Amino acid sequence: MQKDDWMTPPNILVLQPNQVHVWRVFLDRGPVSAQWIESTLSAEEAERAARFHFDRDRQRFVIAHAALRDILSRYLGCRPKALTFSVNSYGKPELTNHELEFNLSHSGDYALIAAARGHKVGVDVEHIRMDKDLESIANRFFSPSELSEFMALPPERKAVGFFNCWTRKEAYIKAQGLGLSLSLDSFDVSLTPNEPAILRTTRPNPAESVRWALRLLVVHSDYIAAVAVEDATPSPPEGQGLEFRLWDWDRQIK
Questions:
Q1: Are 125 and 106 in contact (CB under 8 A)?
Q2: Which residue from 31, 59, 155, 196 has the least number of CB within 10 angstroms?
Q3: Chain segment 66-100, per-residue pLDDT in tens
Q4: Is residue 215 part of a domain?
Q5: Does residue 6 fall inside a structural domain?
Q6: What's residue 33's pLDDT?
Q7: Which domain does 237 fall in, by range?
Q8: Whole-angstrom Cα distance, residue 227 to residue 213?
Q9: Cβ neighbours of 201 (radius 10 Å)
Q10: pTM of the predicted model, to two decimals?
Q11: CATH number at residue 132
C-alpha cells in the first residue's frame, strides 16, 4: 500500500468548488500541548469531553473537535470559537449559516476532517484490528456482492479488504447524511486490496452511483480510511475533475 503525501498547509487556505480538502490530525498529544486547544471548544463540547472516563479518550475528543474548529474557521475567516453547529434530522453535524460541507472521523491516534464547497462529503478512518471476527461482521453488514468478494480473498488480505469495505461504506453513508435510514446493504463498494475505490452500484436507483467519487486514504500503516464525495459531473473534461488536497494539521501547530 502506497503512502499518501500529507502536505504542510499554506498560511492562507482557499477551497475551490472543484476541490476536496482532507486533513490528518494526530490525536496522541501531551496534556500541556492540548491545554490551549481546549480553550477553543464550545461549552457543549467541553461538557461532552468531561464525560469521558479516561483522560486519553477525553484528550482525543478535545483535539479532534478543536482541530475541526481551527480548520473550518480558517476557511471562513473567523475565530474558531465563533463557529456554531447544528445537526440535521438524522444527526449529521452542519455549520450554521454557511455553505461549507465537512465531515469528521476519528479512530485510535488519528482523526480525519474533510471539507468541500457544493459537494456532499464524508470521511471514515479505522484502526486495523485483528481481534475482531471479521467474517461474522461481514456476514451481517456487507451486501451479497461485497461478501462474495471478501470471502474470495486469501486469508492474509482479508483484514485490509474488510476495512477497505467498511471505511468506504461509512464514508458514503456519512456523506449522504441519512444516518441509519440508509441500509449498509443498499449499495456495493469495491474492497479488494490494490484495486481502485469505487461505488459500484446503488439500490433502488443505480444511476446514483455514477454521481459519487470514492478515494482510499493512507493515513498510517495501521489504519485504513476513505473519503466519499458527491460529484455532479462524474466525467468532466480532462483536468477539470475533482482535485484532492491532503493536509497535515500537525505541521502548522507549534
A1: yes
A2: 155
A3: 999 999 999 999 999 889 998 888 888 899 878 89
A4: yes
A5: no
A6: 57
A7: 19-27+99-252
A8: 8
A9: 17
A10: 0.92
A11: 3.90.470.20
